[in-house]
Amino acid sequence: MFIKRTVAKYGEKTYVNHLLVESVNTPAGPRHKVICNLGHMDPGPKEEWLDLADRIQAALGGQPSLFPDPRVEDAVRRVRTRQAKQSQLEVAAEEPLAGETAVPEVVPVKTSGVQIQDIREVGPLHVGHQIWQRLELDAVLKAVGLSNRARQLTEVMTLNRLIHPASELAMVDWAGRVAIADVLATDPSKLNEDKFYRNLDTLHGKRVEIERELHAREKSLFNLQGQLLLYDLTNTHFEGQMEATPKAKRGHNKQMRTDCKQVAMSLMLDGDGFPIGHEIYDGATIDGTTVGAMLDALEQRTGIEGGLTVVMDRGFASRRNLELVRSRKYHYLVAGFQNQRGPLLGEFEQLEGWRELEPSAMKLPIQIKRIEQDGLAYLLCVSPARAEKDRAIRERQEKRLLKDLEKLGERVRQGLEKEHPLTDADLFERVGRLRERYPRAARYYAMERQGGLLVWPVKEALRARAQELDGAYFLKTSRTDLEAAEIWRTYMVLSRVEAAFRDLKGTLDMRPVYHRKETRVETHIFLCVLAYHLQAAIEHLLQGAGDHTSWETLREELSTHHVATVVMPTADGRKIAIRRGSIPEQRPREIYRLLGIPGDPMKPIRTWV
């Protein structure tokens, strides 16, 4: 409810009234409904009107006030009187005359005057809302203490990220362009960016409870096996200095945005690609330092302690991390570090034991070989496509390294000529930076000082060995019960995390983050993850039906479905308004069928205008 001021002139006199009003949904869109006329009552300064309306609404609901206000008491009396009169009118109209208040099935219409108005896109919104209901997210949010209004706002904000990601300010405009009122029964005229911002604050701190309950529902609803844990880390950057966000720091950015501060985000998926949970770290976090926290978060979300196989990239494959995983009674499957291939060179060179993966398992040819050493299973892999990539990376680094070594060598020579030589400490500090910058190529050169000059003789044997290992890599697992093809297929499931990161940053537009407060930064990322839950459920259901279309394509295909109001003038001079969904085209209709959701997003509403 809110208070609205009206001004009317009759002759020389001006009349000012204040109305108690609420917004209602109608076939023609949101409209204001007058609850009662407050007469000549002075509601005080305009900035106090909303608080006064809230107190009137509370009093109408039976909630007593500690501080009685004559204005509230007068407004309640007026509303009660109006309601009593309205009730009497409704009793008198229980048997309306034909054509007066009821809309008959058959009415003569002047076809030349038919109009269509208030057209709103509904297809993607309808699908997102149906999946939201299927996951029972409203019940999940209610269980963590969110009010009905907060749950509505959270659904609107999550569906926005799923359908048309936008800032909180642009989200208000988006809500007015889609069928929010028809599908969610939420009046878009009551939405504003301040409410969205406040809802971010309301959601903060409830992430763990929501993720725990949501994953349990998904596991039951979709019969997920839950034998694998896929884990990886990414980062998302900001625009600005981010002084109010302590976790915003500069670090290794995987999109090469070294000019921006960032936060790191870890993501845990199950083997079917559904999120288990996520954590936010400062932007300088090194991937391999998060494994212990990841296992803690896993147990916090699932209650599972041990038994799962943790699949990770080589950035987490340090001996300390793998020992930690085993000490917590989990198995692991990781890619080995490139510089650890040397001891396996003999196995790579032997011709026995290799097999080629079937074309159905891998489009490009790849040779694999399984061996066991020290109670672990290793899968040696040789890929021609990977060989070209390794060779290109090594040659590019080597070319840049030699160029920088020439510059550094010239700097050392000039220092000797001018009797200002670089000290050994300064020289080897610069050499160390080059080794850090070009790790793949630097190990093939012995950078040292001879006669005061810098020289870098090539280690021919080491470089030749590297060339032999182009395209060769290995996987390592504590699961010795897995055969070669099973190890390969299991590791390839890790690509679902990479796909999730691409969708979060692309389709759901997680980056860059424009919030300044750290709590809102974290909740923004959480809303993106919530939207990804919906996307994962949609794609999982479609894939089970044999349709592998991505959500990015699906929402374009669904955008042709709309809701509209058809206004028709009747032969007796009145007008009928019918608000309903359009007939979906073939592709949206097929998507609805495969997802098992109704094709009509709303029940038609027929009213006299």
Quick synopsis:
It is elongated and about 105 Å long. The protein starts with a strand and ends with a strand.
Please provide a written account of the structure:
With 609 residues, this protein is an alpha+beta fold. Among the domains are: 91 residues, no CATH class; 56 residues, no CATH class; 84 residues, no CATH class. Helix content is 43%, strand content 20%. It contains 21 helices and 18 strands. The strands form 4 sheets. Strands 7-6-5-8-9-15-12-11-10 form a 9-stranded mixed β-sheet, with helices on both faces. It has a 4-stranded antiparallel β-sheet with strand order 4-16-17-18. A hairpin with a 5-residue loop joins strand 16 and strand 17. Helix 1 crosses helix 2 and helix 13 runs antiparallel to helix 14. The longest helix has 34 residues. The chain is elongated, with a radius of gyration of 33 Å. The two termini are 24 Å apart. The relative contact order is 0.12. About 2% of the residues have low confidence.
Instruction: Pick out the low-confidence regions.
Output: 89-100
The shape is elongated
Give a count of the beta strands, DSSP E runs of length 2 or more.
18
Structural class: alpha+beta
- Main sheet: strand order: 7-6-5-8-9-15-12-11-10
- Give me the number of helical elements: 21
User: CA-to-CA gap between the ends?
Assistant: 24 Å
Subunit arrangement of the protein: single chain
Helix content: 40-55%
Q: What is the radius of gyration?
A: 33 Å
The biggest sheet, with number of strands, parallel, antiparallel or mixed sense and barrel status, is: 9 strands, mixed
Strand content: 15-25%
The overall average pLDDT, rounded, is: 86
